[in-house]
């Protein structure tokens, strides 16, 4: 029985806040996030409104609360596949996609230097490219590289394995299926940015107005 245990789905600022607040009220918490890092879209913002602080500040405080609280177990690259049961007694199946980089990663960046294959930088809305082995962003938590195997160029795998002195790259890592029993579920899977092209008076996205950008960009 998972009574007293809470599953939080979504590791953005809402999910992270829910997880730390519940854990600090002495609930055991499992936090799952589909991206390879916590913090969600807040990581992508330039400033917080209204104080115009950098978003990394508030996130770092929450990451520290997570690290210091043994009641929180968190999983990235994790997707909920099935939920059974009813309030007080849920059984949840979660699939963890392989990151192909294990906890030995020190973020030294040596693999990235020798990797030639590239992928779209999804964190930056596809405005640029990252290497096939990459740190999702500068303040990523957990601070650990991710390998996009499909984006590797010929010979990259050998080169990155050779470059990594910490045995952190595991090209054979497999997906994992985990089952949790929890009493309650908090669904905090986030939001989609507003389509700024609807604000026609600002001409966002129109030719000649490339300098009109959103806060997310
Ligand atoms: S501590 Fe961080 S979030 Fe708070 S006002 Fe300063 S910069 Fe902003
Ligand atoms: S995977 Fe290895 S080489 Fe790449 S950043 Fe991590 S520790 Fe460094």
UniProtKB/TrEMBL annotation:
Keyword annotations:
Iron, Iron-sulfur, Metal-binding, Oxidoreductase
Query: Which superkingdom does the taxonomy of this entry point to?
Result: Bacteria
Q: Which Pfam families does the UniProt entry name for this protein?
A: FAD_oxidored
State the coiled-coil residue ranges.
none
* Isomerase in keyword set: no
Which GO MF terms does the UniProt record name?
iron-sulfur cluster binding; metal ion binding; oxidoreductase activity
PANTHER family (alphabetical)? COB--COM HETERODISULFIDE REDUCTASE IRON-SULFUR SUBUNIT A, FERREDOXIN:COB-COM HETERODISULFIDE REDUCTASE SUBUNIT A
Q: By what name is this protein known?
A: CoB--CoM heterodisulfide reductase iron-sulfur subunit A family protein
């Amino acid at each position: 029985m998972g009574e007293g245990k809470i599953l939080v789905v979504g590791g953005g600022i809402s999910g992270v806040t829910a997880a730390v607040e519940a854990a600090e009220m002495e609930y055991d918490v499992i936090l799952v996030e589909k991206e390879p890092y916590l913090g969600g879209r807040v990581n992508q913002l330039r400033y917080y409104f209204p104080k115009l602080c950098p978003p990394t500040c508030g996130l770092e405080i929450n990451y520290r609360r997570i690290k210091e609280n043994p009641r929180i177990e968190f999983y990235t690259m994790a997707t909920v596949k099935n939920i059974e049961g009813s309030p007080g007694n849920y059984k949840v199946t979660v699939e963890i996609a392989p990151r192909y980089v294990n906890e030995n990663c020190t973020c030294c960046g040596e693999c990235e230097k020798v990797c030639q294959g590239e992928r779209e930088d999804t964190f930056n809305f596809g405005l640029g490219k990252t290497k096939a082995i990459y740190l999702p962003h500068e303040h990523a938590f957990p601070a650990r590289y991710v390998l996009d195997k499909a984006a590797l160029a010929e010979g990259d795998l050998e080169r990155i394995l050779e470059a990594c002195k910490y045995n952190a790259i595991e090209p054979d890592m497999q997906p994992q299926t985990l089952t949790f029993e929890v009493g309650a579920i908090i669904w905090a899977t986030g939001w989609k940015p507003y389509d700024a092209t609807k604000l026609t008076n600002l001409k966002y996205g129109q030719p000649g107005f490339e300098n009109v950008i959103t806060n997310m960009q």
